Structure formats: structure tokens, C-alpha cells
Amino acid sequence: MSLFYISAxxxxxxxxxxxxxxxxxxxKPNLILLLVTLFCFYFNFDILRVMLFCLFCGLxxxxxxVVPFGIHMLVYLFIGAxxxxxxxxxxxxxxxxxxPLFVFATxxxxxxxxxxxxxxxxxxxxxxVVSFRVLVPEVIYGLFxxxxxxxxxxxxxxxxxx
Amino acid sequence: MGKKKKISLLFTVFIILxxxxxxxxxxxxxxxxxxxxxxxxxxxxxxxxxVPIESIIYxxxxxxxxxxxxxxxxxxxxxxxxLKDAAKENNRLRDLLSxxxxxxxSLVAAEVIASDVSNLRxxxxxxxxxxxxxxxxxxxxxxxxxxxxxxxxxxxxxxxILINDPDFSIAAYVQSxxxxxxVSGSLEGLCKFKYLESNDDVRIGDQVVSAGRNSxxxxxxxxxxxxxxxKDHSGVTLxxxxxxxxxxxxxxxxxxxxxx
Lengths: 162, 260
Description:
The complex is a heterodimer. Chain A is built from 7 helices and no strands.
């Protein structure tokens, strides 16, 4: 459990200060969201634990970003609730389901963020253009990182939790 | 109360609290400044670890850039000599006409050490802060154009929002036709020249520069070139997409304007 929290802090720093030098179509991988997906997938039975971890990850995102405190916390709270519901009711503990779950989480966080900005600040965006220019490259890069470090993730997380 | 009801209640309470937190949060708040200060050291460390990797990746392009810069430097030296003569003549004429001396703004050079963790926001963290006279609202430029504005400042680092960030906007005008409107960023990462009227003389390829009227931004700084013009969602006004004059995703050093 603590491994997830420490990894989230490390991933936040890597996203801010390392991966900005190796962008893919001007986009960085969303490692924190990948961690949230893994966490929600394997701890879907304990909603409180999922909520606390999502709030922590959202707080990290808010701290290292220019957004007001609370926006990413709210986005990740929603995503955690949706992911754990899907994992609990429809998916078995098969690691291959992490991939479509991560794709769904990335697209959802962009849509929820754009909707929040519209509701709270009246800011309009083209969801199609946001998805095409930002979210799709983010998904591809995130999956690349996941597959690159899959053996490490499998040994440290998947096999231990299985 | 059943477990499910407790969880739902807790979820609702969290949402309400977070909505209040979002509304109450302000830019450049004390927690943000503290986090910026604390995180600047790990940012600098990570930046240093990437330098050897970067030098291998960009070795070939760096050598090409070096020979190009040498050629440009030769041309710039000749231009500088001509401009020095022009400046002397300008000062002489101003003295004659008893003009007030225009005060030059002072610049602080800074290195980019980190960027925003979110891909939907475009900000950079630089290694200069309030100790170097940087304050929120300062303009940030490079030699080729406008970069953005300082929004958060700690003692040793600052956060700047780029011109294609959704919370950035600036008064700008088209150099060729003096049409004035607002350039702002967007969630899509594009710069939009907004609130144009249908009879405005705006064409694809026009250069857009900062207007500088009643704002912190000096006038005449290049922002970008217009690449397309479309109707707004309201159907009443037009907006143009502006291609930024500089490559915002590969900035390494910037200049912050600190004087008036």
C-alpha cells in the first residue's frame, strides 16, 4: 500500500521535471493515472481506500500544477469511483483489463476536467480537439511506459496482490 | 446506517468540500508558494540527471545549430554596429526636442526546470524567484517572441503560464492592419485570436503582436502568425488560430521582464 503512495510522489516529480524533456506530440505520460488505475483495479473491494488514494493523487497533481486546489482531487475522486465500480462488477482480476481501463480513465479525466471548467468557470472547449491533440497521445505514451515497465509492475504489484 | 449509504454520504461530503476548496483557492496562495519552493530542489536535481541524456540525444542537432548560430552571429555584429550609430543619432535628436528618456526594462534570465504535471495545462517552472525581483504578473519573453506571464512566485523559483494555456489572455493586434482583439490559450493547446468581427481585415499569414495598452506586456512583442480563421460557437464573431512564434514545448531558457 505504502508502495503506491511513494510511487505516486516519485511519478509526480518525474512527470514535472523529467518527462517534459521527452514529450510525445508535446504530451507527457500520465503515470499518476496509471497508478490510480492499478490501485482501483486491485483494491476495488475497499471503496474508502480507493477514495483516499485518489484524493492523495489529485492533491499531488494540484500541488505541482497551476490549477486551484481541489480540481484534480475532484476529477480523480470521480474516476476512482467509476473505475472501482467497473472493476468490481464487470472485470475479473486479469491484468489485461488494466489496459482498456487505463484508456477509459485517461479519456474520462480529460472530459471531466473540461466539463468542470465549463461548469465552474464558463470555459468552453472542443472535446474532440482536446481528445485528438492531448488525450490520445497521452494514452499511447502511458501504455508504452506500462508495457516498458511491465515486468517490474508485475513483480512488485500484480503478483503480490494476486 | 448501511456501509453503502455511509460511503455515498462520505463521497457527497468530499465533493461539496472540494467544490468549496476550488472556489476559495487563489493563484499564488501560500501553500502553492511553499510547494514551489520545496519542489525546486528535486526539479533541479532531475534536470541535472537529464543533461547527459539530452546531450547524446540532441548532439547532432546541437552541432548543426552551432554552425548556424556562428553565421547568424557574424551578421548580427554588422547589424549591431549600424544600430549603435542609429541609437546615437536617436538620442541626439531626442535631446534636441527635449523628449523624456524612455526607461529600458530590465531582464532576468532564467532556466526552465520543470513543467506542469497536467497535459491540459501549459506552465513552466523557472529557477528564479522573488529574490531576483520577479513578481506575479511579470511578462516572460525570448528573443523571438512572447512566452507568457509569471503567476506563482516563491523565493527561488516561479511558475509561468504559457500563451497557449487556457487561463492566459492578452490584448494583441495584427501588424499589417492594426485590428485589435484578444489572444488567449485554450484547453486544446491552441492560441486563439478571439472576438473578431466579420468585416475585420484579418488574413491567413498575418503577424500578431502584443498591443501593450494598459497592460504589463510591452507593445510589439511577436506572438505568432494566423493560420486559420473560423466562426465562433455563437456564430456572431470570428476567431483565428495563431501559430506561436516560438516552440513552446522545447523552451530551455527564458527572459523575465522585471522593470517598468
